[in-house]
Amino acid sequence: MSDEGAAGALAAALLAALREVPGLSQVADGRPVQAGDAAATIEIGPESDWGHKSGAGAELRFAVTIACGGEQPGRVRGLIAAARARLEAIGPEPGSGWRLVTLAMVRSRSVREDGPRWRGSLDYRARMLRA
User: Fold this and answer.
1) Domain that holds residue 80
2) What's the rounded Cα separation, in Å, for the pair 131 and 122?
3) Residue of 64, 65, 124 lying closest to 100 (CA atoms)
4) What is the SS3 assignment for 45?
5) For position 15, which CATH number holds?
6) 113 domain-assigned
7) Mean pLDDT calculated for residue range 68-97
8) What are 85-125's pLDDT values in tens digits?
9) Residue 93: inside a domain
């Protein structure tokens, strides 16, 4: 099932939540050409049918990636923790006629990049039903 409605509703809710994370200078849906010092991007990936015989549903996988400067991983870890708290506070009604049933973190990690840069990521599974 490919339904842009579920992905669009989820993307809007994710962007709104991440824009409330203190310390992020930029939040984008997809990788920006130029990113600020502490930038978050969301990428909604695989989508599969999660409906039932009397209603439409979708299971979506998405990743939130945060890149920032710093000599040590403390800054990126703090931003990841703040982002995770905001994402997990998203209500069940993200909009556009969809209901968020479950949101589960699958994994997280942080890695050093070239120079004093760090990249952290959060991978989630969201299950949604058409309201």
Assistant:
1) 4-125
2) 27
3) 124
4) strand
5) 3.30.2000.10
6) yes
7) 92
8) 999 999 998 777 899 999 999 999 999 998 889 999 999 99
9) yes
